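Sequence only, no structure available. Ideas?
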Amino acid sequence: MDANVLFIFVLAIFVGFEVVSKVPSMLHTPLMSGTNAIHGIILFGGILVLADADTTLARSVGFAAVIFGAANVFGGFMVTDRMLQMFRKKK
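Reply:
I predicted one. Tokens follow.
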């Protein structure tokens, strides 16, 4: 794997952590529905990296990206669904 790709990957981890950690907890749940699309793009990118991987390190990083991206998409939809159930009328 190229050193530039590894640098971008580490930089993306750092920037993502900083951005998410600065969001107040009051706004976190409403923002989850908006970020599901971003996580879907990350998942798609991880699949593309995994499909083109030729080394064990690239395969491992691609596999981790797919697993974490899928967990983010699934968790985001679960949180959004739970939030929307709070606003439904009771029967």
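The longest helix spans residues 56-86.
Hope that gets you unstuck.
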